[in-house]
Each structure stands twice: as C-alpha cells, then as structure tokens.
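Lecture notes, unit on protein representations.

Consider one protein chain, 212 amino acids long.
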Amino acid sequence: MICARYHMYPGVKETGLDHPIQVIASENACKSTNAGAIMMGTGTNNVIKVNFETITPRELVDIIEKNNIFMIISTFEISEDGTVDTIDKFSKIMRKYKIWHHIDACQGGTALFSSTYRYLTDTFQDAHSITIDFQTCLNLNQQCSLLLVKDGEQLTNCSSITTPFQSGRRTDGFKLWLCDQLDDLDVHATAMFDRYIESDELEDLSEDSDQS
C-alpha cells in the first residue's frame, strides 16, 4: 500500500496527504487489507469491496472517478473459498488512471515455483506487486513473506531513509533460498497444487488457462 500511495502521490513522503484516498479490493480480500488501511491512516471506510467477477468496466470507472483510488487489490488463492479474481478486462482502465495493481497471492503464488503449474500465473506479469506467504503454504517457520515489485526503484524510494544499519528482513530471503537448496521448492509447490487441483475453483482456473 505504501508503494501504491507513493506511485500515485510521489511527494507524500515529505508533505503527507491532505485528503482521503481509497483502495478497491476484492470482496473476499484478506483481512490484511483492512489492517494495512489502518496502519497507513487510510481508514477501513476507504476500502471499497467489489466482486470483480460481476462488476462491469463502466461501474469500475464510476467508482474511480468518484473517489481518489490509488490501488486495486485482487486475490489469487487456493485456500478458504479459493478466490481467483479475473481482472484482465480492467487492465486498460488501471493504466489509464495510473492505478497500482496488487495481487494478494499468499498461497496461490507458490505456483510461480512449480514448473507444472506456473502457467496459472501468466496474468501476474501485469501486476505492479505480488505477495506470497511461504510460512502458510510450504511449512516454513514464521516469518517468511515475499513481496515482488515490478519496479524496484518504487520500493526503494517510497519509504527509504538512509541509516547506519541493515534491515533484519534480509533473513527472509536467505531462509527461502536455503529452503530451496535443501528441499526443492518446485517439488513442494507442485505437490501442494496437486492436493488442490481437484477443487472446483482450481479446475475452473486450469480450464480457462488452457483455453487461452
């Protein structure tokens, strides 16, 4: 969210904002969406929940033009209700209004590491950022979360302050690398998707990808 806000309002680090801003999220979005809105001072009332499968492009534009939308959060999941938001039809709209697109793929994102199921993540290339939580899907000890950002400079510039010390979060990256060295991530990610492939949601997603 911090990256998305900086993307829309580059001067926010120095001046802050003097008006409310809103984020559009899937109606099945993780509770961390509201948590992020609280911690950023955006407020949960400014999180607009929609059903990306039923909302039309015109309806989405109406929401954007009536608010200060800085971010759209879609979901790619295989747990709980298995939500997979199809928002390809909104790509032009997001580019037109320069809105940051984030994909919450806390478990489903592990398909990136599976040579068998990587094709399911083809739409990831259009996102500005993606999150994956390996402690929830590959049994790594907490904390081991991955944030992928298309433009690395955005991540650096949005909140960086020069300090004489280094962040401890580098250990997350080392932990993931070490896991791959000791126990092939491809094998684990593929096995996890094998367990879910019989679910209706994942079957539908596989069929859609095959047709495209």
